[in-house]
Amino acid sequence: MKHSDLLDIAKTFGDPVYVYDSEKIISQFNRLTNAFKGVKHLQLNYAAKALSNISILRLMNSLGSGLDTVSIQEVKLGLLAGFKPESIIYTPNGVSLEEIEEVAALGARINIDNLSILEQFGSKHPNIPVCIRINPHVMAGGNSNISVGHIDSKFGISIHQIPHLLRIVDLTKMNINGIHMHTGSDILDIDVFLYASEILFDTAKNFKNLDFIDFGSGFKVPYKEGDIETNIEELGQKLTEKFNDFCKEYGKELTLAFEPGKFLVSEAGYFLAKVNVVKQTTSTVFASIDSGFNHLIRPMLYGATHTILNISNPNGRERYYSVVGYICETDTFASNRRINEISEGDILCFKNAGAYCYTMASNYNSRFRPAEVLWHNGKAVLIRERENFEDLIRNQVDAKDIFSTKKEKAAVK
Fold this sequence. Notes:
Blueprint: H1 3-13, E1 17-21, H2 22-35, E2 42-47, H3 54-62, E3 66-69, H4 72-80, E4 88-90, H5 97-106, E5 109-112, H6 115-124, E6 130-135, E7 157-158, H7 162-172, E8 176-180, H8 190-204, E9 212-214, H9 232-250, E10 255-258, H10 262-265, E11 269-280, E12 285-289, H11 298-302, E13 308-310, E14 318-324, E15 332-340, E16 347-351, E17 371-376, E18 379-384, H12 389-393, H13 406-412
Parallel strand pairs: 1-17, 2-3, 2-10, 3-4, 4-5, 5-6, 6-7, 6-8, 8-9, 9-10, 12-14
Antiparallel strand pairs: 1-11, 11-12, 11-16, 13-16, 14-15, 17-18
Helix pairs in contact: 2-9, 6-7, 8-9
């Protein structure tokens, strides 16, 4: 997108504001599809948790994507967006049996990641097909909070518990139709991913009625100039060969599934915020913006780097700034970052703001969450209105009748 387009959006819809470029989403979807064109049956299930706006879900559905969900609410959003129940896979963690049963009743595919729920669900519903999430005990991911396949992870059923798993399946006579893994996000080394795939293939041999094998996702996207990213094309070539060989050995053409989230939407997103104050201290120049980690928490939570551009003055000389927010505790987006000279009132643009940004926004400090805009076919379309004060208090119950002021108490005496 052009800087002028982003500035027009900030002027038209106000700031802070999230902007998503549909063309980038489509190109990423096609890139991943092409990387695995050698697979006969490929299914991409968009990870709704990355960006769950219903208009984004409708876009994914129009591309032929399925939907990866982690809550019953995401399942219902998917159904509302037009996804067929059978194209939705539900992979929760630590939820109740009741929620899983409710999702199953909606027709979504079920993915279970612990032995306790597997036994309970299989005992009650042996005729409902179930996918099993395996923990391959492979450390992958760019941050400890998003590395989920290691030996001490809360996610998945340990490969060392396969005998116990098989006993449950045998006793309940349940139908296992899929095997799944997800090692973590921001995977750099495809050899680690390929190693984990071999573990998944070996596990899959224990089940005779599989329809698909799901390799999760976690592909890394570049966050700054010169940044490393997952080589999707190389991974596609190598994993396609391994998968096709496995299908021949298994005796059946299975579906190869992935659950891309960040890969599809991260680079499509921009977060725009206005500079309120430029403040010079003894050693630092702060650019304080009209936002905080209530709107974009990734730098504070994950140590994530987001390229920041001054789109109001893109040709100005570069100076060092620490970009901070208005929350009443430390909320630093960047420290001593080289940015084109900033003046109060300028609009800063945070790149890679499509994944795990708005979806993790909050009303901390009783601030409103921003608007969302989709840039589609050269036009800006509002897809979420900015919150207002009525939204903030909508579900609050004012118990004013049970309180009295000190003056009222004194008068009673």
